[in-house]
């Protein structure tokens, strides 16, 4: 079982309470800036969960998701709550698990109308596979009250914006239908947490929503009929099963990289071997069998001085920008995080290590497509985490 917790965030108090009922012996954990988490174990399970209430909207969700990630270094982050259905085959009480999150409010307004410029984030393949397996087996629903019909689990995109949609015919509704026709549900926080996960080295983020209304003008009626409570109870039940399964997968502390398969055989936890390349760049190799004239060897002198490692990384970052492997915007954002890391390292306050690690993780998300930089930064992050 994993030693890392699963972070679960909610926007509404009733959503928070639904998750809290799933925890055994929750203990209060206060963040230095006031955010309160409750940390407990999943009932009838062993996974640890850190739970927080973030309020409504993508902005607050993103900020507190970032805070939770820095505080707990979780195995995954789940956002659990209610949503409105966008298709008629999705019923009240059903559960929607996002395969992609659209931040649908991005656009440009022109003479002939609003043109969409969305951002979107896909759910990680490993998390999606676990969630689908749980949905197929149906065992997740055994703890629900005996109702007929049983809630269905749907997998598909979710649209996350900044308004509550309660109409099928408004201009807003028509625009979403035309532009995001594949979206199964609509809500207000998923884009924020998805962005936070992306900026932290592609941390798996799974958005789980119970359907509490049909976005057809009847929201007040369904709310009075207590569909919010029923829908979030279903979502919480699914989330608890998912958190428990991820905890089991993460028993070695690295569930996304524990195994890889090639030519029909399974390779278990092969160590990453570093080789010195041109200009001192560090290249990570993970393999079972290596064919051809490739000579592997450990770096005889891995960096031990964090300040020196950061200075060297800044030089190689500039070189990557100059040779076109990093665009100007990414390079500028990476420089900002490097500066924050340098300042945190020099400050030597009780909060410095957290600021340093967070800046390096943001940096990792920015340069993850450049293999040699990503491998070198992994070593630097390990050095930062070893600081006393």
TrEMBL record:
Q: Which SUPFAM superfamilies match?
A: Purine and uridine phosphorylases
Q: Ranges for the Nucleoside phosphorylase domain?
A: 5-242
InterPro entries xrefs? Nucleoside_phosphorylase_d, Nucleoside_phosphorylase_sf
Which sequence ranges form a coiled-coil region, renumbered to this chain? none
Protein name, per record: 5'-methylthioadenosine/S-adenosylhomocysteine nucleosidase
